[in-house]
Amino acid sequence: MSSIGTRRSIRKFKPDEVSRDLIGQIVEAARLAPSAKNRQPWKFIVYTGTQKDSLLDVMEISLKKEQTTHALLPDSHNGLPDAFNTLKIMRSAPVTIIVININASSPFEPIDADRRITEICDTLSIGAAIENMLLTAAELGIGSLWIANTCYAYDDLVKFVGENGQLAGAVALGYPDESPSQRPRKPLGEILEFR
Ligand SMILES: Cc1cc2nc3c(=O)[nH]c(=O)nc-3n(C[C@H](O)[C@H](O)[C@H](O)COP(=O)(O)O)c2cc1C
Question: Mind listing the pLDDT tens digit for each residue in 163-173?
Answer without folding.
Answer: 999 999 999 99
